[in-house]
Give the backbone structure.
Amino acid sequence: MAERLSDSDVERDKGGEQQASELESLAAKQPETTSEQIERDRERAERSERKAAEKLTELQTEKLEKKNERRETKAEKHEELKPSPEKEKNASKSERRQALEEELTTVRQHLTPAQRTLSQIVHNPIIERASEALEETVFRPSIVVGGAIGAILVGGFLYGFAKVRGYLLPGSEFVVGLVIGAVLGILAELLHWLIRGRKASK
């Protein structure tokens, strides 16, 4: 009986050793499979990242191409609408006036009623002609700026001088300053044109 027990113990020990060796082999395989699985997962992630990056660049290039196409079509439309310089030179006054009226009509559609009324008054042909005539004569920038500066300087000087000395002012000092400043403004503009003309001729 003692021998049988010992044989059965030996068999148990052998069976236990087999189980232990199987467990060890499974344990040894397990890390390999997990490291292989990790490697596979990493490769999958890299592939999906590459695909996402490729898709993103494709979308960006498509977007840029569409944007460029829109710009090109806009430029082509603008070129079609833009009259050629030859046509502009040969356009009569009535054609220019008609083009202006069409442009004003489209702009006025976006204005408030008060702004629309003001626009109609300002762009009335009679008022426009009078305004252009005044722009070229009395209300030239050099005259307006020179007159304003002259009125301030001369008026201020005379006012200060009269205040210190105790004189009474007649009230025309600002008008005199305006006239003096306007004359100086015209002279400054003429001087500017003379100097500019000489530089252009050289």
